[in-house]
């Protein structure tokens, strides 16, 4: 039994040893028993890739050589072209008798003259187009304003007429040895004309205020019936006092009609004095009110300040009421008065600029200019004496003839247009356009006139040839 037990233990030990050995050496045996792996294909492909690269390098080398050869050929061709060009230039110089520099200078001069001509033509086209558009817009605005403003016109003169009940009153007005009429003329500064005109005495004087005082004085004397130097003096001062109050009322009425508020009382009084002042037969106060209305409507149409334009337009001629007391252009005098009595700088500037004594800097100043010209140029608004009319025509022709190249000048359309004939050999088309501009600017600078004057320069071109 002991032998069997020992054999069993030995067998168990052998089995355990076999298991342990199998776990330790089994993987190594498995790896060792696997078949050998086949060789990699990369080792076979390397020679083929090397051959392709070598072939590619050879192709690149061949192309580089080809490019170098072509560059050399192009360089030779370029040198040949330059030599040919130089030969052609020398041949052209020999043929034309001009050097390259001289030919280039002549070409540049010709191109410059052509460019200047084209530029002048283009400028004329742009100016004409701009003028057409501006005139269309201006005509539209002015027509609308004139349609909205309907004002009557009455030309006034420098005389007043006092009606008499009977011609017997003429002798009483003259008085014994003319003492009454002398007293009247010395006090009023107005000429009393007593002639064969039935039932009337004519008062003549350029100062409307004095003429009105004389008229009131004479009417009061006729109503009273007592005409002698002492009574004349009493009636004169009474009429003068009444007229001062009447002037204020006229100024207030004018301010109301123009739609202006807040004027200084002195400016209102000066406006009232304009009732007795005329310009080319047009009453200045009525003209100022009309200009104020036109300027306000034009400012509304153009998007400017209607308040400033209306105010400046109403006051633009206020300097005329004191021009016999203060020296200087009435526009500048009026501007100083406006500043003195609290008006804004914009209003004073527009007043000063309406006759170009100063250059207009605001749109309101330009509007006042246009409204003033429009009011004076409307049909029937102003009259003009024959002497002034003839002098203006003579001055227009003199201004045009002082320019070089002018042959003949004709004033037409009652001085509203001048036509200038120029010598075609002395002035070309471009110079003709410039001449019309210069004449127009000189007329604006040297003359005063209502409305506008058209300047037309006429250049006649003639082509003459003889058949032999």
Description:
- The chain has 468 residues and is mainly α.
- The protein has four domains: 89-148; 159-249, Ribosomal Protein S8, Chain: A, domain 1; 257-377, Hypothetical protein af1432 (Orthogonal Bundle), CATH 1.10.3210.10; 386-459, GMP Synthetase, Chain A, domain 3 (2-Layer Sandwich).
- It has 15 helices and eight strands.
- The protein has helices at 2-33, 42-96, 100-148, 168-174, 179-188, 208-224, 229-258, 265-273, 284-302, 306-315, 330-340, 345-352, 363-377, 386-401, 429-446, and strands at 159-163, 191-193, 200-204, 278-279, 282-283, 406-412, 417-422, 454-459.
- The strands form three sheets. A three-stranded antiparallel β-sheet has the order 1-3-2.
- Strand 7, helix 15 (429-446) and strand 8 (454-459) form a beta-alpha-beta unit.
- Helix 9 (284-302) packs antiparallel against helix 10 (306-315), helix 9 crosses helix 13 (363-377) and helix 12 (345-352) packs across helix 13 (363-377).
- The N and C termini lie far apart (174 Å).
- The relative contact order is 0.05.
Mean pLDDT: 79
Rg (C-alpha, Å): 53 Å
Shape: elongated
Q: Alpha-carbon distance between the termini?
A: 174 Å
Largest sheet, spatial ordering of strands: 1-3-2
What is the CATH top level name of the largest domain? Answer: Mainly Alpha
DSSP strand count: 8
């Amino acid at each position: 039994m002991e032998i069997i037990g020992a054999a069993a233990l030995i067998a168990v030990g052998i089995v355990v040893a076999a298991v342990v050995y199998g776990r330790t050496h089994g993987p190594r045996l498995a790896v060792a028993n696997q078949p050998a792996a086949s060789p990699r294909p990369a080792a076979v492909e390397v020679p083929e890739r090397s051959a392709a690269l070598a072939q590619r390098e050879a192709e690149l080398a061949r192309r580089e050589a080809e490019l170098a050869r072509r560059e050399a050929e192009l360089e030779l061709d370029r040198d040949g072209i330059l030599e040919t060009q130089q030969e052609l230039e020398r041949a052209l110089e020999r043929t034309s008798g001009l050097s390259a520099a001289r030919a280039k200078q002549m070409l540049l001069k010709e191109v410059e003259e052509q460019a200047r001509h084209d530029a002048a033509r283009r400028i004329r086209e742009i100016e004409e187009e701009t003028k057409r558009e501006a005139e269309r817009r201006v005509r539209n605005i002015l027509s609308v304003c004139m349609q909205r403003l309907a004002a009557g016109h009455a030309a006034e003169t420098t005389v007043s007429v006092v009606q008499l009940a009977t011609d017997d009153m003429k002798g009483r007005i003259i008085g014994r040895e003319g003492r009454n009429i002398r007293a009247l003329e010395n006090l009023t500064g107005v000429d009393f004309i007593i002639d064969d005109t039935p039932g009337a005495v004519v008062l003549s004087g350029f100062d409307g205020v004095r003429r009105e005082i004389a008229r009131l004085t004479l009417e009061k004397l006729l109503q009273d019936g007592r005409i002698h130097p002492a009574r004349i003096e009493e009636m004169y001062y009474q009429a003068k006092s009444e007229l001062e109050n009447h002037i204020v009322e006229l100024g207030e009425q004018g301010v109301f009609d123009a739609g202006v508020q807040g004027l200084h009382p002195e400016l209102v009084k000066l406006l009232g004095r304009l009732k007795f002042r005329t310009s080319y037969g047009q009453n200045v106060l009525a003209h100022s009110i009309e200009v104020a209305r036109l300027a306000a409507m034009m400012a509304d149409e153009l998007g400017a300040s209607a308040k400033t334009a209306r105010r400046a337009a109403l006051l633009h001629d206020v300097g005329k009421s004191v021009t016999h007391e203060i020296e200087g252009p009435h526009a500048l005098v009026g501007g100083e008065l406006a500043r003195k009595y609290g008006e804004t700088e914009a209003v004073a500037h527009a007043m000063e600029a309406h006759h170009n004594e100063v250059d207009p800097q605001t749109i309101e100043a330009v509007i006042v200019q246009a409204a003033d010209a429009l009011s004076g140029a409307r049909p029937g608004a102003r009259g003009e004496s024959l002497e002034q009319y003839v002098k203006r025509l003579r001055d227009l022709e003199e201004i045009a003839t002082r320019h070089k190249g002018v042959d003949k000048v004709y004033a037409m359309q009652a001085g509203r247009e001048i036509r200038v004939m120029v010598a075609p050999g002395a002035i070309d088309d471009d110079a003709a356009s410039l001449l019309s501009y210069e004449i127009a600017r000189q007329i604006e600078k040297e003359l005063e006139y209502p409305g506008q004057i058209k300047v037309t320069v006429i250049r006649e071109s003639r082509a003459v040839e003889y058949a032999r």
